[in-house]
Design a protein that fits this description.
heterodimer, A: alpha/beta, Collagenase (Catalytic Domain), 2 domains, 5-stranded mixed beta sheet, 4-stranded antiparallel beta sheet, globular, disordered N terminus, disordered C terminus, B: mainly beta, OB fold (Dihydrolipoamide Acetyltransferase, E2P), 8-stranded antiparallel beta sheet, two-stranded antiparallel sheet, about 40% strand
Chain lengths: ~425, ~190
């Protein structure tokens, strides 16, 4: 009875111009505070007096060469060419309007890009490698690489306030990013071309350095992978010889990004003065047949499941057809009563107002096994969390229903409805 | 009363889309390609997970009990080393790294590092979760990279991509066929 009531009453769909609590949604990395509590989005705590430090190692692999440039190897011109790719990758993100990272609205949030010469500037053999200096390395080996891994970014976050590493700021909240390093494969198994070099015949077999950098910088800022094809944070870059979106320009500095990327970075770093991207759509995705989860444990803190977990929810501008944002439902967490519960909630924030939107949801029909979600839930319910958190047992078959019931159809696999934020 | 914080983000790990593209972090590899590159392929049950500092990084060490070996050799009590994890007051996050929970059953494509440690080949591409179809009892596998479906803005369709809800027997047969093919091609 209680469960049925929950299904009925929880049919929420709200839209509001909000500048409310920290935006959640999209696909963020999260950290569970060591003292217990709700998962917190990973993000920087930056200000103009404590800007994001940035540096890269000019040590480049030579035999075989990994970085393909128009300029001759080991020249100042090559360094300049690579530095421009790095700079433009950052500019793609700092060019997004409606964020506190926007370079025009909030100058000084990003420190100048420095150069260091040591190859191992990203790691060394002691714990002190987590130095609070955010570094890109092209000539750094790591035991973390395996076949097929081209590059990765390691983001260090604080599990509690008061923590610092090296020269980083002292964290004021759990989930605060303290250090980010990006390592590119340097064993000759992959070649990365600057934009200029990509356009040459030799660039046909190389990955676009700028696309990879822009993706990795997205991780620096706390974004995880997106499930929207062609979003910059979609894990798959274009094939060798190609690049994503458009190159950044003075007119469109965030040209390489997709709207899903822009909305995500806005939600992580919302500009309090933004009056455009302030729409929000919340809702729940629940089984069309609530009895399909009748065998699940009764509701109790941290152990009940009343909605679809892991459904991919996509917001599309119904006039243009553009994907504006996407996220994965669905859980909530009451900060006064953690850990998370799994009720199918989704919450997409920082949407441009004045538009009509369609909501698409992944059907999740067919077998839904616990293993389908255990990967994603590890960050939300880490085994080492101070507050016990029970992941949902989802070994059943779901046909989803998007609340409210006014959605077209009641049991279709791809429901959609139109909605205009206020 | 504190406001209820609505969190709707679940970190996606890697999602496969059937293009010829390569991941920013992970290059697309077929099952056959991975079968060739793997030093060992096993079915195993996760026993325990722990993270600690080692060589300047936070690593997660996951212990498995191996029940089947499809290729190569791996100890019955297998330990897999992967980047990232949470130790004390710090968490290290690397997108695309698979994480495991005790009692999960998985198929793992493994590589050995230069130090002899085992790691998961191509990270999430080399990890397959085993489930069971409640109606038929058939053991099924889903590749970590295919956990969530990809949305294509052009078609407004979600694509069931990667190996998802495939029978374990089918994966086993495909791997064995690939290994057999590789053996035949070896001089």
């Amino acid at each position: 009875m209680r469960r049925t009531k929950a299904f009925t009453l929880a049919a929420i769909l709200a839209a509001a111009a909000v500048a409310g609590p920290l935006a959640d949604g999209y696909v963020f990395d999260t950290t569970v505070p060591s003292a217990g509590g709700c998962p917190q989005p990973d993000r920087w705590g930056l200000s103009a007096v404590g800007p994001l430090s940035r540096q890269w190692s000019t040590s480049l692999p030579l035999a075989p060469p990994t970085i393909l440039s128009v300029a001759a190897p080991q020249t100042a011109a090559q360094v300049s060419e690579i530095q421009k790719a790095i700079s433009d990758s950052f500019t793609a993100w700092s060019g997004v309007a409606g964020t506190t990272f926007n370079a025009a609205a909030y100058p000084g949030m990003l420190a100048p890009i420095a150069q260091v010469s040591a190859a191992n500037s990203c790691t060394n053999d002691s714990q002190s490698n987590v130095d609070g200096l955010n570094t890109i390395c092209f000539n750094q080996t790591s035991e973390g690489f395996t076949s097929g891994v081209l590059a990765f970014t390691r983001v260090i976050t604080a599990n509690s306030p008061g923590v610092s590493v090296g020269s980083s700021a002292t964290a004021t909240f759990a989930g605060q990013i303290l250090d980010s390093d990006t390592l590119f494969r340097n064993d000759g198994q992959a070649t990365f071309a600057t934009p200029a070099a990509l356009a040459t015949p030799q660039g046909a077999g190389a990955y676009d350095l700028e696309s990879l950098l822009t993706h990795e910088i997205g991780h620096w800022f706390g974004l995880d992978h997106s499930a929207v094809w062609r979003a910059m944070m979609f894990p798959y870059a274009p094939p060798p010889g190609q690049f994503l979106g458009s190159r950044p320009s003075a007119q469109v500095p965030d040209g390489p990004l997709a709207d899903d990327d822009r909305t995500g970075i806005r939600a992580l770093y919302p500009d309090p003065n933004d009056s455009v991207n302030v729409g929000e759509i919340q809702g729940r995705i629940v089984p069309a047949n609530p009895f399909s989860i009748a065998t699940l444990p009764a509701a109790s803190t941290g152990s009940y499941v009343t909605g679809i977990v892991g459904a991919h929810v996509v917001v599309v501008d119904s006039d243009t057809g553009s994907v504006i944002a996407a996220t994965l439902g669905g859980w909530t967490c009451n900060s006064s009563n953690p850990p998370p519960t799994f009720d199918g909630t989704y919450d997409i924030q920082r949407l441009p107002i004045g538009h009509n939107y369609m909501i698409y949801a992944e059907p999740l029909d067919g077998l839904v096994a616990p293993g389908d979600f255990s990967v994603a839930l590890n960050d939300i319910c880490p085994s080492e969390a101070a507050t016990p958190c029970t992941t949902p047992n989802l070994a059943t078959t779901f046909n989803p229903r998007i609340k409210p019931d006014s959605a077209t159809g009641a049991n279709g696999s791809r429901q959609r409805f139109s909605f205009t934020p206020k | 009363m504190q406001a209820i914080r609505k969190l709707a983000a679940i970190p996606i790990l890697v999602l496969i889309y059937l293009t010829n593209g390569a991941a920013t972090t992970i290059e697309k590899l077929s099952i056959e390609k991975m079968a060739g590159l793997a030093h060992a392929i096993v079915r195993a049950r996760c026993i325990s997970v722990s993270a600690r500092w080692d060589r300047g990084e936070i690593w997660t060490f996951t212990s498995f009990q191996v029940s089947e070996t499809w290729k190569g050799q791996a100890p019955d009590d297998l330990v897999v080393r992967l980047l990232g994890g949470s130790v004390g007051s710090l968490t290290s996050t690397v997108a695309g790294i698979p994480r495991f929970r005790p009692n999960e059953e998985v198929i793992l494509f493994l590589q050995q590092t230069s130090d002899g440690d085992f790691t998961v080949l191509s990270w999430e591409q080399g990890a397959f979760r085993i489930g069971r179809d409640r109606r038929t009892g058939t053991e099924m596998v889903t590749e970590d990279t295919a956990t969530f479906e990809t949305y294509d803005p052009r078609t407004h369709q979600f694509s069931a991509t990667g190996m998802r809800d495939t029978s374990l027997d089918a994966l086993r047969a495909r791997v064995r066929a690939a290994i057999s093919q590789i053996s035949e091609n070896e001089p």
